[in-house]
Amino acid sequence: MSGPVALPPRPRLPPHRRALPLLAVALARPLAATTPARLHRILAFARRGAPPATARQASAARQASGASTVLAGPAAGARAVSA
Hints:
Helices cover 58% and strands 0% of the residues. The protein contains four helices and no strands. Helix 1 crosses helix 3 (55-67).
């Protein structure tokens, strides 16, 4: 049995902070269609020389990308974070 589900309100980013999350989401869409081996090569190349993100940076990036996209439902957000 299912019932009506309402999405929780998304945090709104100010216009000057929307550009990078939107760019990241736009770049991620074609990557989602690549094979795992190719995706691994692309991400390994992109991360060369990059320091690891702090917990605060990772949380801020996750919230910014979530605020710039419309998810298919509450479960879609959980899938995106756990994947």
